[in-house]
Design brief:
Length: about 160
C-alpha cells in the first residue's frame, strides 16, 4: 500500500473514531443532539464512500484514464481533420459559387446569341422566295440545254445550206 493510501486509511479510522466520539457525546449530552446530529450523519455517510475509493484498484483507474486520454487525443485529431475538411469545403463552395456565376453569364450570352440566330433565320426565311429552289434550277438547266440545242442546230443549218 502506498503512503497516500496509508494516510487515507488513517484518516478514515480517525473519522470513524470521531463519529463514535460524537455519538457518545450526544448520548451523554442530549441537548447537543440537534446541533451535532446533522454533521455526524454527513460524516458517517462519507466514510463508506472514501473507503470504496481506497479499495479501488489504482492500476485499473490508471488504465482507464490512459484509455480516456487516448480517446481524447484521437477525438482532438478528428476535430482538427474536420476543421481542415470544413475549410476545404468552404473553399470548394466559394469556387462553385464563382463557377455558377460564370455559367449564368455564359447562359445569358447563349440566350442573346440564340435570339440573334432566330432573327437571322427569320431574315433568311423571308428571302427564300427570291432564291431559286433545286427544282427551279433543274428546269432552268434543261431550258438552257434546249436553247443551246436549237442554237447549234440553227448555226449548223446556216453553215451547211446558206452559203
Amino acid at each position: 500500500m502506498s503512503n497516500a493510501a496509508e494516510e487515507m486509511t488513517q484518516c478514515i479510522n480517525a473519522l470513524t473514531e470521531l463519529v463514535s466520539a460524537l455519538h457518545r457525546l450526544m448520548d451523554n449530552y442530549p441537548e447537543l443532539r440537534e446541533y451535532l446530529l446533522p454533521a455526524t450523519l454527513r460524516l458517517s455517510e462519507t466514510i463508506p464512500c472514501v473507503s470504496f475509493f481506497l479499495s479501488m484498484d489504482m492500476g485499473e483507474v490508471e488504465r482507464r484514464l490512459s484509455a480516456l486520454e487516448t480517446d481524447v487525443a484521437q477525438l482532438m485529431i478528428d476535430v482538427a481533420q474536420l476543421k481542415i475538411d470544413v475549410a476545404q469545403l468552404k473553399i470548394d463552395v466559394a469556387q462553385l459559387k464563382i463557377d455558377v456565376a460564370q455559367l449564368k453569364i455564359d447562359i445569358a450570352q447563349l440566350k442573346a446569341e440564340m435570339v440573334e440566330v432566330k432573327v437571322a433565320i427569320a431574315r433568311i426565311e423571308g428571302r427564300l422566295d427570291t432564291f431559286a429552289t433545286k427544282d427551279d434550277l433543274h428546269k432552268q438547266t434543261w431550258r438552257i440545254y434546249g436553247a443551246m440545242t436549237v442554237l447549234v442546230a440553227g448555226v449548223y443549218f446556216i453553215a451547211r445550206y446558206v452559203h
